[in-house]
């Protein structure tokens, strides 16, 4: 068989590559000769992936519950992958920033539009039974979701709204003590920290604090202002950041709230969430008023945060795609 000029050129490039590393190209070609062809299932470790569901009860719908949460965490990992690219880019441009935030919005769009799986995809009777075997584990303990929040905004925006003004000039450690989600993981009866929260803090607190420090100048809010001050046109970026604000702080919590009402609301006393959290006050966006980018919203929009207007705004922003 005669080698084409293209193949000869690639062989020469390979020879140069391995020579520069002090390696013998022929040995690597032997390795390529002996290696099996790659398969789809081996490449993505499909058999391992499909074996990662371990229900604690015999109720069939528990497996749905597990798989959907695993899918959610994979989407969060995708989002964090984009967050890291943005924060660590050596010569960040508006175009790169906007494109990566648009990817994150696509992930959250997939999550919010698929959440009907959690709302209508399980029998209420099954859920209320198998959930008792999951205590004190809770979706509240998603560390990746908290990391996305830290990457997305100035850390003070994650402080409980009643403490933000008071702690605006405090250190990150003190702000972390008053982060909003700690107030959403209190026991309904005593007001004390739940075991769910104690477990979560023990596992992730150091990691969260380090990330907050690492992103103090490279979170999305800080980077937006840096690009804006440089004179760059940030209008398209602003649109994507508004979408992100709505997805993370309104649409995603509202999806969970809808699910909680479906499974946990019970007259006259609501059923506590698996972690014992006060979900009725924690999930609705109108109570938390978490807003990553207040400089991108009007006073009226922020006052009405979490109410009906957000749906029309999100629809308008989507139509721009």
Automatic annotation (TrEMBL):
Leader sequence residues: none
A Pfam short name: Trp_dioxygenase
Biological process according to GO: L-tryptophan catabolic process to acetyl-CoA; L-tryptophan catabolic process to kynurenine
Keywords: Dioxygenase, Oxidoreductase
GO MF terms held by the record: heme binding; L-tryptophan 2,3-dioxygenase activity; metal ion binding
InterPro entries, per the entry: Trp/Indoleamine_2_3_dOase-like (IPR037217), Trp_2_3_dOase (IPR004981)
Gene3D superfamilies, per database record: 1.20.58.480
Protein name stated in the entry: Tryptophan 2,3-dioxygenase
């Amino acid at each position: 068989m005669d080698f084409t000029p293209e193949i000869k050129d690639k062989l020469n490039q390979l020879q140069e590559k391995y020579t520069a590393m002090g390696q013998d190209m022929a040995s690597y070609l032997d390795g390529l000769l002996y290696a099996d062809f790659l398969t789809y299932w081996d490449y993505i470790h499909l058999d391992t992936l499909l074996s990662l569901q371990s229900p604690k009860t015999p109720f069939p719908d528990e497996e749905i519950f597990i798989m959907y949460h695993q899918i959610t965490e994979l989407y969060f990992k995708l989002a964090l992958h984009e967050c890291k690219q943005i924060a660590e880019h050596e010569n960040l441009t508006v175009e790169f920033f906007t494109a990566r935030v648009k990817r994150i919005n696509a992930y959250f769009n997939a999550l919010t539009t698929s959440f009907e799986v959690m709302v209508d995809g399980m029998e209420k009777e099954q859920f209320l039974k198998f959930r008792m075997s999951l205590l004190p584990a809770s979706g509240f303990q998603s560390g990746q979701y908290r990391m996305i929040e830290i990457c997305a905004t100035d850390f003070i925006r994650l402080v409980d709204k009643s403490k933000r003004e008071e702690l605006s000039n405090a250190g990150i450690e003190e702000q972390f003590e008053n982060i909003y989600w700690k107030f959403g993981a209190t026991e309904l009866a005593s007001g004390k920290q739940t075991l769910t929260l104690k477990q979560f803090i023990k596992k992730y607190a150091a990691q969260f604090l380090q990330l907050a420090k690492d992103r103090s100048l490279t979170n999305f809010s800080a980077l937006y202002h840096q690009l804006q001050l440089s004179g760059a046109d940030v209008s398209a970026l602003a649109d994507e950041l508004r979408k992100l604000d709505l997805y993370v702080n309104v649409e995603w919590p509202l999806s969970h709230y809808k699910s909680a009402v479906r499974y946990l609301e019970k007259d006259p006393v609501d059923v506590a969430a698996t972690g014992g959290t006060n979900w009725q006050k924690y999930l609705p966006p109108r109570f938390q008023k978490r807003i990553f980018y207040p400089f991108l919203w009007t006073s009226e929009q922020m006052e009405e945060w979490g109410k009906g207007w957000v749906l029309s705004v999100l629809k308008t922003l989507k139509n721009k795609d």
